[in-house]
């Protein structure tokens, strides 16, 4: 697992634009090497800000959108089309305006889908979809994602792995139903830390004052992933914290990039 590296930008707009440019490069590189790319999207303000920035990025058309697999790190378990669903917000921010292959857009199930309101069954179905897509490079039942992005909650949650809940302690399954989340809605679906850690690159997005404490806790030496889930999110090749100065304002000096 890779150690976290920090990139701090002036403000959240610049952070979103720089992260979008970085994502374009990562996808184009992966497509050049492997013919295809796989990216895990995050919900939340920073994830949607990045997607919106990607939509207006000058190099956006360098991506071959038809050879891109999109997955989600978590989903709010709500009916299809609900404005609070992460996939609905991602479609609005970007996905409806780029020529993706619909078969490669792997949204997590909705609460009015084939599994009804059974979030555990829906999570198991998503795990099976991931396992079927895990190629020779896949580890532990998931593809070796090229880039997996995570928003960081003010309580240090990533995906829907909240401090101290059962989901963040999961060591076997790749996707779980989450019950009793402290942030609405209480029922969610989430990748687990083992699935997150199969990604080549993990990017944690943290912009805004309300992320400062969370970033400081997660980046402190010896941070525990059950109490501080963001501390457990690492990529096999690279772990990047993409931040703005407000989110980085409570980091110890030793954690700042030179
Ligand atoms: O509910 C969620 O929140 C987090 C963080 O969102 P933010 O708006 O505070 O940045 C997000 O990463 C996650 O995907 C989402 O379901």
From TrEMBL:
Keywords: Hydrolase. Residues 11-241 form the Glucosamine/galactosamine-6-phosphate isomerase domain. It is an enzyme of class 3 (hydrolase). The keyword Ribonucleoprotein does not apply. Pathway: Carbohydrate degradation; pentose phosphate pathway; D-ribulose 5-phosphate from D-glucose 6-phosphate (oxidative stage): step 2/3. It comes from the Bacteria. Its EC number is 3.1.1.31. It holds the Pfam family Glucosamine_iso. One of its GO terms (molecular function) is 6-phosphogluconolactonase activity. It catalyses: 6-phospho-D-glucono-1,5-lactone + H2O = 6-phospho-D-gluconate + H(+). Hydrolysis of 6-phosphogluconolactone to 6-phosphogluconate. Belongs to the glucosamine/galactosamine-6-phosphate isomerase family. 6-phosphogluconolactonase subfamily. This is 6-phosphogluconolactonase. It comes from Streptomyces omiyaensis.
């Amino acid at each position: 697992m890779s150690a976290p590296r920090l990139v701090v930008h002036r403000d959240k707009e610049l952070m979103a634009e720089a992260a979008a440019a970085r994502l374009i490069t990562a996808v184009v590189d992966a497509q050049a090497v492997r013919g295809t790319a796989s990216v895990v999207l995050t919900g939340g303000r920073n994830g949607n800000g990045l997607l919106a920035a990607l939509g207006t990025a000058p190099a956006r058309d360098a991506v071959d959108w038809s050879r891109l697999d999109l997955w989600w790190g978590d989903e709010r378990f709500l009916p299809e089309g609900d404005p609070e669903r992460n996939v609905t917000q991602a479609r609005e921010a970007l996905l409806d305006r780029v020529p993706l292959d619909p078969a490669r857009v792997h949204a997590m199930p909705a609460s009015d889908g084939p599994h009804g309101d059974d979030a555990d069954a829906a999570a198991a179905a998503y795990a099976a979809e991931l396992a079927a897509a895990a190629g020779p490079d896949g580890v532990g039942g998931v593809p070796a994602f090229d880039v997996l992005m995570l928003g960081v909650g003010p309580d240090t949650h990533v995906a829907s792995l909240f401090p101290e809940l059962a989901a963040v302690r999961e060591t076997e399954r790749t996707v779980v139903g989450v019950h009793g989340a402290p942030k609405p809605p209480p029922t969610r679906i989430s990748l687990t830390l083992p699935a997150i850690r199969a990604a080549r690159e993990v990017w944690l997005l943290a912009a805004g004052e309300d992320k400062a404490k969370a970033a400081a806790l997660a980046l402190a030496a010896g941070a525990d992933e059950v109490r501080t889930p963001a501390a457990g999110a690492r990529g096999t090749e690279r772990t990047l914290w993409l931040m703005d100065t407000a989110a980085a304002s409570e980091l110890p000096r030793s954690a700042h990039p030179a």
